[in-house]
Amino acid sequence: MSRATLTRLFAASGAAALLLTGCTSGVDASAGAGADTTRLRVAYGWYPTCFDYAQSNPFALFGRQVLDTLLSEDPETGEFEPYLATSWKSLDGGRAYEFTIRDGVTFSNGEKLTARVVADNFETLWKLAEQGVSPTPGAYLRNYDRAEALDTRTVRVSFKKPNAGFLQANSEGQFGIIAPESLAKSPKERCAEGTIGSGPFVLDEAVQDERVEYVKREGYDWAPDAYGRDGAASLERVTIQIVPEESLRAAGVVSGEYDLAYSMTETGLAQAKGQNGVKTVLASDRSVVNTFVVNTADPVLADPAVRQAIQRGINREELVSAFYGKGVEPATDVVSPGHPSYKDRGELLGHDPEHSASVLDRAGWVKGKDGIRAKDGRQLRLSLAFSAGDIGSAESGWEYVKNGLADIGVAIDLKRVSDAEQADLRKSGKWQLAVYQGASRGDADGIAAFYSTRLSTWSGQAPRPKADGPLAEQAATVDPEKRRSLVDRAVTEIVTQAYGIPLFDSAQVLLARSAVRDLTFPVNAWEPILYRVTKK
C-alpha cells in the first residue's frame, strides 16, 4: 500500500518465556481465524492515537512490528546481543558509545541502513525530546551531546555526563531505527502515517477504529539470535482488529474468529474457561510496580512514621485477591520480579497493623474519639488522588485500602480525577498521595526516573539524599557490580523510609488459540514480537 493511501485512511478517521496456563488438549477451530495458518488475527481494545512508537509508548504493539533496534537482550542471561549493530563498546567511562552497524540492511522503502542514518535517528530523537514530543526517549538520552558517523559503518553517540543505561535503551522499541524518509516527517505526520522501519513487517492498511493490517517483509534476514528464527517472518499477515468490548474479544477467541485477544480480566477468562483449544497467556512485565506516590514535602507525609505505618497498614494479599484477577500479584519490591534490579523485600511490605499502630504511637500520633490520629493539633487525614486511566481504577479497591488504614487511625479522602487533572496535579506539587501505574523499563534508570526527586515528574517532593545520591551515581556507573550495589542501597533506603508505597505487580493477560506458538515479549508485556509466531 502506498504512503498516500495510508495518509488518506488516517485522514478519514521485557523476552522472558511466557507462562501458559489453562491449556486444553483440543485443536483449533476449522473455520475463521484458525483456518488460515499464515495470518494472525489479534483482538485489541483501542485504536492507536499515534503510530510513531517514539511518541506513543502505550501503543507498543503497533509500532514494534515494523522496527528493529541496535541491540537485543537475551531473556535468560540479560546479556546484550547483536541486532542492527554487530558490535559496540563504551568509551570514556560511559560518556560515549560506538556501534558497528550491520551491512546489507535495508528499510522497507529500499533505503539503506548506514551509520549516518543511525546518527540522524539519535539527533532527531533528541530534538523531539527537547520539544516535549518524545519524553521517554528523552529520559534515555539524558545528558545527550551529539551523534556522529565516523565512517559508513561506525556511529558514535556522546554524552556530557556518563549514561550507564544507554545500552539497555537500545534494546527497546522506542529506540527503533527508522528510515530517512520518516526522519524527514513532522511529529504529526509520523503519528498519522507511521514510520518506515527495517523490521519483519510493514504497515499495510489502517482503518480508523476498525483494524490495522501488517504484511510480511520479504527478504528480511537480520533478526537477533534471541528470536530463535532466521529469514522472513512465518506469518504472511497480521490483522489487529479493534474490539473495545472485552466480552467480544473473549468470545472471538473461543469461536476461532480471533487467534489472540489482549487485556483479559476475570470476566473474559470466565467466558473461555473449559473451552476447547483456548489457553491463557500471562506476559510478565519488567517495571516499577503500581504504587502510591508519596509527597514527602507535605507536612504530614514528611513524618517517616506516617509513611511506614501506611506501608505496613495495607493488606496487599487481600487487596489483590478481592479486587484483581489473574496476572496481578502483591508487590514484594519497588519493581517486578522480572526486573534485573529486583530483590525480594516482601518482609518490609507485609501487612502488620500492630506494627503500624506502634510506629504511630511512638511518633506521637494519638487516636481521637473519632478514631483518627492527631499530633500537634493536626489530624492524620490524607487525600488519595486516582484517575480513571489507572490500573485498579475501580473505587471499590481504594475504598478497601481506605477502610484498612482507618483501623490504624489514618483517614483517607478519595479524590477521583481525570487524566488531565492528574497531570496538572503532578506538576503543581499540591498533592499528598496519588496512584502511579507502573511503567516498563528493564534498567535501573527506570527506578531512578520514578524515585529520584531530581528526575521524577511528580513535583514538590522533598530531597532524599540517601536515595537521590546513589540513584544519580548509578546512572553514571558503567561497572555492573558497582552499579548493582548502588541501586540496592538506594532501593533499601526507599523501602525502609517508605518514599513510595508499592502495591501490586500486574502482568498482561491474554487469551490465545492453542495453535498460536512462540509468542514472546522481550522487553515488556505490551511489546510482543510477532516475527517468530507460528500457527500449527
Automatic annotation (TrEMBL):
Superkingdom, natural source: Bacteria
Record carries keyword Signal: yes
Signal peptide coordinates: 1-29
Domain Solute-binding protein family: 79-455
Keywords associated with the record: Signal
InterPro entries with a match to the protein in the record: Peptide/Ni-bd, SBP_5, SBP_5_dom
Region (Disordered): 459-478
PANTHER family to which the protein is assigned, alphabetical: MONOACYL PHOSPHATIDYLINOSITOL TETRAMANNOSIDE-BINDING PROTEIN LPQW-RELATED, PERIPLASMIC BINDING COMPONENT OF ABC TRANSPORTER
Descriptive protein name: ABC transporter substrate-binding protein
Lineage of source species: Bacteria, Bacillati, Actinomycetota, Actinomycetes, Kitasatosporales
